[in-house]
Amino acid sequence: MVTQRIKNMTPSATEEMTAIVENMKRQNINVIGLNLGEPDFNTPANINNAAKKALDDGFTKYTAVAGIPELRSAICEKFKIDNGVNYKPNEILVATGAKQALFNAIFTTCEAGDEVILPTPCWVSYVEMIKLAGAKPVFVKSDESTGFQLNIPKIAAAITAKTKAIIINNPNNPTGAVYSEDCLKELAKLVEEKDLYIISDEVYEKLIYDGVKHVCIATLLPNKRENVIIINGFSKTYAMTGWRIGYVAANETLIKGMDALQGHITSSVNSMTQIASIEALTGQQQTIEDMKKEFNERRKYLMDRIKSIPELSCDVPQGAFYILPNIERLFGKKYKGKILKTSVDVTNFFLEAANVAVVPGEAFQAPNNVRISYSNSMGNLVKGMNNLENALADLL
């Protein structure tokens, strides 16, 4: 028998959809996966070559739990150059993906009975990590009418004596929203006044469009740096999802706590990946621009197609590689005698009638939406949207 802790946990909807798609492909069903949360590009050659050299050089032993000094220093330099904020190597911990970095942060700051504010829509794993720590997620809805910007008055109203932290994701998964500097300044003021932790997941920071500026919230809290925790990684920026490496920046006391926690779970990230990640940060960066240019073209195409479909509506996202169209106009329609009542129903309809996989909004606390990823080839996007339009025409 599994523990009640595990029974209370909701499995990842994104992982479940990925498994469904892979199973369909094994059955030779030509499904188009617009559900993926990873770049469809290959890891740049210079990064691969750095890993190969590390292997050839015999760099295959354990490292310090928090990561090798050279990588932690490179991450500090990245913060200084890209974000305008200064960190020391002892304020950095390298983890097995940004997901573990986030897990470390939540388990190091939150006790049983604490409350953590989550602006929604939000990434699926935040909720379960908070619950696993014994804390309570408190949802604060961001409005579609504002492009899913943070609703600061609602966040302020949700703060209680039990509130320990606020988690934001900027740019956001699943909405693609990039939070404005004015909005973040208001949030920073609130964090400082209420003496809360702010955990900012910034893994999509380089994937922004339309000249929008990404602001690292650490720059807005110079007098409360001990309350700021920044999560980042290499998966999205450098197409390194399978390498499993991310990092967290926080005050030295928190980092020591995370180091102790991680030391009893996974210990260090594999050594050759750490070497490859130094090359990612210090080597050529042109592949990021090339990837972003392609994502931008797909984003524009997808938005044009969405605008032409009466049943769907969506503001233009400015970051990441997702859109989150509203599907309320599909509720009440019938497919094969079944009434579509939820985003899960709509997702199943897309999969059955159009062979297109997306992720239901329920997974992100957005029951009137579905998440569509444009991390797929332009050819597949065209085919997928054609399939969806044809399927929608058959609804009653």
Total beta-strand segments: 14
Termini gap: 45 Å
Low-confidence blocks of residues: none
Q: Could you tell me the mean pLDDT?
A: 96
What name goes with the CATH superfamily of the largest domain?
Answer: Type I PLP-dependent aspartate aminotransferase-like (Major domain)
Polypeptide structure, described:
With 396 residues, this protein is of the alpha/beta class. The protein folds into two domains: 4-42 and 286-394, Aspartate Aminotransferase, domain 1 (Alpha-Beta Complex); 45-283, Aspartate Aminotransferase, domain 2. Helices cover 41% and strands 14% of the residues. The protein is built from 13 helices and 14 strands. It has helices at residues 4-7, 13-26, 45-56, 69-83, 98-109, 124-132, 152-158, 181-194, 252-263, 271-282, 286-307, 343-354, 378-393; strands at residues 32-33, 92-95, 115-120, 136-141, 163-169, 197-201, 228-233, 246-249, 322-323, 334-335, 338-339, 356-357, 359-360, 370-373. The strands form four sheets. The protein has a seven-stranded mixed β-sheet with strand order 2-8-7-6-5-3-4, sandwiched between helices. Helix 6 (124-132) links the parallel strand 3 and strand 4. Helix 5 packs across helix 9 (252-263) and helix 11 (286-307) runs parallel beside helix 13. The longest helix has 22 residues, at 286-307. It is globular, with a radius of gyration of 21 Å. The protein starts with a helix and ends with a helix.
